[in-house]
Design goal:
Blueprint (H helix, E strand, L loop, with lengths): L6 E4 L15 H14 L3 E5 L5 H13 L4 E7 L2 H10 L6 E8 L2 H7 L4 H16 L4 E7 L6 H13 L4 E6 L6 H14 L7 E6 L6 H11 L3 E4 L13 H10 L1 H4 L10 H12 L16 E2 L2 H9 L18 E2 L7 H10 L6 H16 L6 H16 L1
Parallel strand pairs: 1-2, 1-8, 2-3, 3-4, 4-5, 5-6, 6-7, 7-8, 9-10
Helix pairs in contact: 1-2, 1-11, 2-3, 5-6, 6-7, 7-8, 8-9, 12-13, 14-15
Bound molecules: 3-methyl-2-oxobutanoic acid and zinc ion.
3-methyl-2-oxobutanoic acid (KIV) binds next to strand 5 and strand 6.
């Protein structure tokens, strides 16, 4: 198999920051960029320099402090955008300009009131402009998910001929099914003559909850870069979640043969940092980084987990920097979980004790969402007093 390295392109600071309420100032962006470099991502999309003086400054300051990771600035297929991105990236050790244009008929007709031939020319032109400033130019074909494959292949061929090093195939509206997105990537690989001169990139949105599945389908079909955000933040329903794709690739490394440079033990600390800085809570049942990702609540699961953690956990919490597995006591919990928790609190009860205590426990559990240690201590005190007297 060819090299299975998947480049992780983080766009938390650009697409992620587009979420209403998540705007960051330069200081916050620098802190997150340094944490992303430490996490091991390959590319940090630091912002959209032409969009505001504040974003220009953020990209400029991030470019000064990031040492090893590629720093990328977004632009439209417009010369002044590209000049602005190039100026903001001036101090970057590894600068990349990310430029592009909409290629679906929705964009060509409704947004640009244009034609396919004109857009094809503008696509190649913007890459040529960007190449005057940096070697590393990524082109995005916005709404590629709804762009007809034959035309998309012509665009991809033209931008690679113009010097694009990476070609981004965004499913901007999160429309594709995984097999369709995979087929689109495979179509480009099989039909664009100069495709080996560039890397194809997956940029999937989550409108149908398929962003992670689509990105994985894309790399299986031959793409070698995934664009993603911490906690899956992004426009509308969000972007591909970084922690999910990284862990999918790691979990299935044996069969798929892919790997990333991400230090997975930093995933939970990074998720918390982004959530706190952006003031955007993470849903409890979010894969890998949600509060319940390693919680076990029902009796059947708890019993199996206590016998062997792998019965109900495919990832060890420490592998992703989570606090640890949790046995949550609820009215659905069983005797083994109750005995385990009493033991942790220093009470050695035998089977008969637990049978009696379990009846009392259920009365408490039915009256509240979660039984806490204070409830258990109270149950134990009352029981021990009864047994002794
Ligand atoms: O979703 C999208 O198409 C984008 C591009 C600007 C890359 O974010
Ligand atoms: Zn996007």
């Amino acid at each position: 198999m060819a090299d299975g390295k998947i480049h992780i392109f983080d766009t938390t600071l650009r697409d992620g920051e587009q979420v209403p309420g998540c705007k960051l100032n330069t200081k916050e962006k620098i802190e997150l960029a340094l944490a992303l470099e430490n996490l091991g991502v390959d590319i940090i999309e630091a912002g959209f320099p032409i969009s505001s003086p504040g974003d220009f400054e953020s990209v400029q300051e991030i470019s000064k402090v990031i040492k090893n990771t590629t720093v990328c600035g977004l632009s439209r297929a417009v010369l002044k955008d590209i000049e602005s991105a190039a100026a903001a990236l001036k101090h970057a050790k590894r600068p990349r300009i990310h430029t592009g244009i909409g290629t679906s008929d929705f964009h060509i007709k409704s947004k640009f009131n244009s034609t396919r031939e004109d857009i094809l020319e503008r696509a190649a032109q913007c890459v040529k402009w960007a190449k005057n400033f940096v070697d590393d130019v990524e082109f995005y074909a916005e709404d590629a998910g709804r762009t007809e494959n034959e035309y998309l292949a012509r665009v991809v061929e033209a931008v690679i001929a113009a010097g694009a090093t990476v070609v981004n195939i965004p499913d901007t509206t999160g429309y594709c099914l995984p097999h369709q997105y995979g087929e689109k990537i495979a179509y480009l690989i099989n039909n664009v003559p100069n495709i080996d001169k560039a890397i194809l990139s997956c940029h999937c949105h989550n409108d149908l909850g398929l962003a992670t599945a689509n990105s994985i389908a894309g790399v299986i079909a031959g793409a070698r870069q995934i664009e993603c955000t911490i906690n899956g933040l992004g426009e509308r329903a969000g972007n591909t979640s970084l922690e999910e794709v990284v862990m999918v690739l790691k979990q299935h490394q044996q069969t798929l043969g892919f790997y990333t440079g991400v230090n997975t033990t930093q995933l939970n600390p990074m998720s918390r940092l982004v959530s706190d800085t952006m003031r955007m809570p993470v849903q409890a049942n979010k894969a890998i980084v949600g509060a319940n990702a390693f919680s076990h609540s029902s009796g059947i699961h708890q019993d199996g987990f206590l016998k062997d953690a792998q019965t109900y956990e495919i990832i060890a919490p420490e592998e992703v920097g989570a606090d640890g597995s949790k046995i949550v006591l609820t009215a659905r919990s069983g005797r083994s979980a109750l005995a385990h928790r009493f033991q942790k609190l220093g009470h050695q009860f035998n089977r008969n004790d637990i049978d009696v205590l379990y009846t009392e426990f259920l009365k408490v559990a039915d009256s509240k969402k979660e039984v806490e240690d204070t409830d258990l201590r109270e149950l134990a005190t009352v029981y021990e007093a009864t047994v002794v007297s």
